[in-house]
């Protein structure tokens, strides 16, 4: 079988419209991969954090995003703040969203 360059070039004009669908499909696959690997896990993590913040109550031991450990003394949902007891006579006010996790003793 002897394929020459002019014959191959002459047959290349028929796939012009199909290549647009291939390109569109390629971008759809890339977007799907980005969604599954980046966007979806981030949304899941954000939803878990929101559930944690909604379930906080007085007496829970928590750690802030800055690494400070303490016990929740008071919660003010109207102002979106919590008062955390750090020591015997030390209480500090934080944004509720700065709570990173609940700590088990």
Question: Mind sketching the topology for me?
Answer:
Layout: H1 5-10, H2 16-55, E1 61-64, E2 69-76, E3 81-85, E4 91-95, E5 99-102
Antiparallel strand pairs: 1-2, 1-5, 2-3, 3-4
Describe this structure in words.
- There is one protein chain.
- By secondary structure, the chain is α+β, with helices and mostly antiparallel strands.
- It has 2 domains: 16-55; 57-105, SH3 type barrels (Roll).
- It is 44% helix and 25% strand.
- It has 2 helices and 5 strands, in the order ααβββββ.
- A 5-stranded antiparallel β-sheet has the order 4-3-2-1-5, covered by helices on one side.
- The longest helix has 40 residues, at 16-55.
- The chain is rod-shaped.
- The protein starts with a helix and ends with a strand.
- The model has no long low-confidence stretch (mean pLDDT 87).
Shape: rod-shaped
Average pLDDT level? 87
Helix fraction by DSSP (H/I, runs of at least 4): 40-55%
The value of Rg in angstroms is: 28 Å
| Beta-strand content estimate | 15-25%
Largest sheet: 5 strands, antiparallel
Q: Which residues sit in consecutive blocks of at least 5 with pLDDT less than 50?
A: none
- How many domain regions? 2
SS summary, helix count: 2
What is the H/E order?
HHEEEEE
- Helix- and strand-based class? alpha+beta
Q: Could you tell me the number of beta strands?
A: 5
Distance between the termini: 78 Å
Q: What is the CATH C level class of the largest domain, in words?
A: Mainly Beta
Q: Order the strands across the largest sheet as they lie in space.
A: 4-3-2-1-5
Here the CATH topology of the largest domain equals SH3 type barrels
Query: Architecture of the largest domain in CATH?
Result: Roll
